[in-house]
Fold this sequence. Notes:
2 domains; three-stranded mixed β-sheet; 3 strands
Amino acid sequence: MATIPSIIPISDLRQDTAGVIKRATTSSEPVFITQRGRASAVLVSTQSYERTQHELELLRMLALGDAEVEAGLGHDLDDVLAEARDLLSQG
């Protein structure tokens, strides 16, 4: 079941910046900041941000690989594995 997102007005962020940062860090959940009743920013812990960036990079690489295969630029799996074995045996 999805959790209710943490939403706070920017005035609360101004008044208790350390507390809001602590909430984002300890819960690993984003804190949505509103301004004039509309979402304007999202605060996440460094760990959550880095994990998201890593996952995004993996998705980019998969999409690139898929596009290369569609364009006929891919490599045969047996050839790739043979090359990997050769490289590993040299080290």
